Amino acid sequence: MAFLIRTIDFTAAGREIVRDRVLDQASLAIGRAAENDIHLPDLAVEQHHARIDVQGDGTLKVTSLGTLGFALDGRAVADGTIDPRTGGEIALGAARLAVARESDGTIAITIRQVAPEEGKGDALRGFQLASVLPSKRAMSWVFAAAILVMLLMVPVTSHLLRTPAKPDPTGKTEGAVLLDSAWSAGELSLKHHSLEDNCESCHVAAFESVKDETCLSCHKGIGEHADRPRLATGMPALSAGDAIQWKIAEGLGKEGPLGCVSCHSEHEGPVRQKAGGEAFCSDCHKDLPARLKDTQLTGAHDFGKAHPQFRPAYYASFGAAKPVRAAAGAKPVERSGLKFPHDVHMNARGGAARMAVSLKQYGKPLECKDCHSPSPDKAGFKPVQMEQACESCHSLAAGGIGKLRHGSLKHLAEDLARISTGPRSFDSGRERPGRLGSASPYRADFGRPVRAYIGISNALSAGGVCTECHLPTTGPTGQADLMPVNLPDRFLTSGYFNHEAHKKEECTDCHAADTSKAASDLLIPDLKSCRDCHLGATAVKTKKIVPSDCAMCHAYHVPAGQWSPKGPEPHYVPKPLAPPKYKPEATKTVVAAIRGSASK
């Protein structure tokens, strides 16, 4: 059976183009795929949409091969029959396939593309609202003018006529600029959420970036990472493209790359300000010694690959006024003034363990938590108190006066004096003879002279009750004394560590307390022990490995707290310093220095 496939197309000028081709076969495949006998490049047609088969009686069987079906003589069907003698029309997408028999018996299939819903709009136009409204062009100009007046001219005019606003973090002062919220780029962060109705508290000048002095009017206690000129020297040179962009930005009123808004982006939604990524720190610190020749810092850019050894703060000499930071790679010896062997107290089979088992307070060998109690913020530990941690084993009970007071030599002297002058009687069980006896028990002061063996000199000297834990010394006037106890509040002064986040670990996994034989051992973990779990920000997270960027342990602003979703940890915030004084000429000097380094 021969099929005549006739395709009718139109040029851009409207001229009709007819293409004929003959296929001598018993069936035809129709679809969007190029291998079909009738190729219809229409997205409304499936790859293999339908097939036409010649039946024994000469009729054509049209069958759908996909799920969309087709239209046969105006009816949506999945299959159907066409008699070539009477003809029929198949609709597939925008194509119409007219089927008819030619005079020579050939079956002709004429393919024509038609526009869907052609002419329907013309019939309904007279009944639509658009027929009585102005043209779309006229309405667009009217709406553009309304937007220009309401959202630009009104805010600008009210800004020029308003009384200058002051920043009000409490949110009680409403803004004076009308319709300014229409220009908001998004919601403010959680900390600045109260300022959403007072845009001019930050945006003081129209069409200018927020200035540093505006930020510092509220953030008075925040400190700098370093002095501005030193920051400019320590920064790497700007690329040519970045230098051009900053020059344009500064021309529009934005402060230099060390300004607040160059790092802190607002209108990012009601979230907490995110900490800078690892690259934010490593851009300067990986090659910092090459630019700052006088710095004592070493290069750092990845905690797992390039990070200096920890330098904890400790008291290097007895009675020192201030702690010092350990030298890189050194093994510091702590002079705390105490005698405390950790290994003796943590030995599960030693004498301390046996004593602890016998005491109701413990009932088992000693553990770290028996002496070290977490601080309220769960990040650090409270100072060890003798009365709570030590006295159950190291008793200060003395005679009949109770116990000696701990912590003050003055109190110790008073308590020992009370023992020395107190009654030292002996009950013989006999009545005293003579008329003065009055049948009373016979008592006499037959006790040992207590002052001879428990005087303050003996208590403070080697072998005395105080020297079980303290180191003896001699005071300025030659009298017996004790070394002052010196322990720093924080060992890692330039970093942050949260013990609560590591509560699932054993203390001895990081601190070698179970093998420490002297109180002079500084039991601060080294860099290697932290790298067992913590690697750089690019590390792959596993059950054991934790990707750790710089902000996990360090803060940018000093003084400041380490970034966390809940804000700085209370114990980490130092006493606020005086607010830094920023001067416009200082900022210009910094920007000029950065530009100069970029041009070299």
Report on the architecture of this protein.
With 600 residues, this protein is of the alpha+beta class. Among the domains are: 2-116, Sandwich (Tumour Suppressor Smad4); 148-207, no CATH class. 21% of the residues lie in helices and 15% in strands. The protein has 15 helices and 20 strands. The protein has helices spanning 120-124, 136-161, 212-216, 228-234, 240-251, 278-285, 288-291, 342-346, 351-358, 386-389, 409-421, 451-454, 456-460, 527-530, 584-599; strands at 2-10, 16-24, 27-31, 38-39, 50-54, 60-64, 70-72, 75-77, 79-82, 88-92, 95-101, 107-113, 313-314, 324-325, 426-431, 441-444, 472-474, 480-482, 534-535, 546-547. The strands form 6 sheets. The chain has a 7-stranded mixed sheet, with no helix packed on it. Strands 4-3-5-6-9 form a 5-stranded mixed sheet, with no helix packed on it. A two-stranded antiparallel sheet has the order 13-14. Strand 10 (88-92) and strand 11 form a beta hairpin. Residues 424-428, 434-453 and 568-591 have low confidence and may be disordered.
Give the key terms:
single chain, 15 helices, 20 strands, 7-stranded mixed β-sheet, Tumour Suppressor Smad4, 5-stranded mixed β-sheet, alpha+beta
